Amino acid sequence: MMAALKAEETSQMQLVEREEIDEDEDLFEMIDKLVAQGINAGDVKKLQDAGIHTCNGLMMHTKKNLTGIKGLSEAKVDKICEAAEKIVRKSVVKITTGCQALDDLLGGGIETSAITEAFGEFRCGKTQLAHTLCVTTQLPTNMKGGNGKVAYIDTEGTFRPDRIVPIAERFGMDPGAVLDNIIYARAYTYEHQYNLLLGLAAKMSEEPFRILIVDSIIALFRVDFTGRGELADRQQKLAQMLSRLIKIAEEFNVAVYMTNQVIADPGGGMFISDPKKPAGGHVLAHAATIRLLFRKGKGDTRVCKVYDAPNLAEAEASFQITQGGIADAKD
Known about the structure:
Blueprint: E1 2-6, E2 12-16, H1 41-49, H2 55-58, H3 63-67, H4 74-90, E3 94-95, H5 100-105, E4 110-111, E5 115-120, H6 126-136, E6 149-154, H7 161-170, H8 175-180, E7 182-186, H9 190-204, E8 209-215, H10 219-224, H11 231-251, E9 255-260, E10 262-264, E11 276-278, H12 281-287, E12 290-296, E13 301-308, E14 316-322, E15 325-328
Parallel strand pairs: 5-9, 5-12, 6-7, 6-8, 8-9
Antiparallel strand pairs: 1-2, 3-4, 10-11, 12-13, 13-14, 14-15
Helix pairs in contact: 6-7, 9-11, 11-12
GO molecular function, one term: ATP-dependent DNA damage sensor activity
GO biological process, one term: mitotic recombination
Organism: Arabidopsis thaliana x Arabidopsis arenosa
């Protein structure tokens, strides 16, 4: 069943629904859960009246901002923030990549409330992982899934619904139901891409999403901004887009998986054969929580290396691209 969602006049999304997603698996933590943590129900009501409905949303407000709410003292705000942090920390989910070696490398899988960036050359498995995550995100949590829906913003025309079918079958899922739970949108300009994100946020507050895939984050910026003279403007607009992604990840407890392109690194030194670095510069480097470098390995294998992550060792893991998506490499 397809419907259309407008993010603004220009943006359209194909929207597909499925009712079976467990209602009791909260996607983000509602503010009334603070009561169980010993916060006065009257104070929770004050937060709701101020337009704050989730613990994740609450944590985006400064304490100064919160003490501006009538009836909330500094001591109360400290206690509320502490309780909200406890609730949110507990709710992070790790979504399996479909490959045990890759999951182990990532400390369990792709993490919600975080931005995971995969960069590398063409045909290294970045988009294949995106397609696999479209399925594994919908697995129940006891199968290392996210038990939620998928949003996919495609800037390069790489999404293939027929690719989802064999991956769903590998995991014993109904391909039709899996496709019904993927909201897909093709973005044509960087502004269109940004508008789609605004529309998605409204959707995510109503439905249980677990992942937002952007494939790729940088492509439209490289098309819409050309030449050195536009670089500062491009980086500013890219920063706005990334800040919107961070907000979505944290407020709705979704994983953001974005792919990125590589560019030649003239500063890479003469001793590195074919030096490459991720596009997007410092702006992108600071926004991504976890940065993964994908490259081709021996034969059919691909290698994923932790390039930068606060809580992961700089190790690497091999995987294979199979008919059923990303899987462990055969020895």
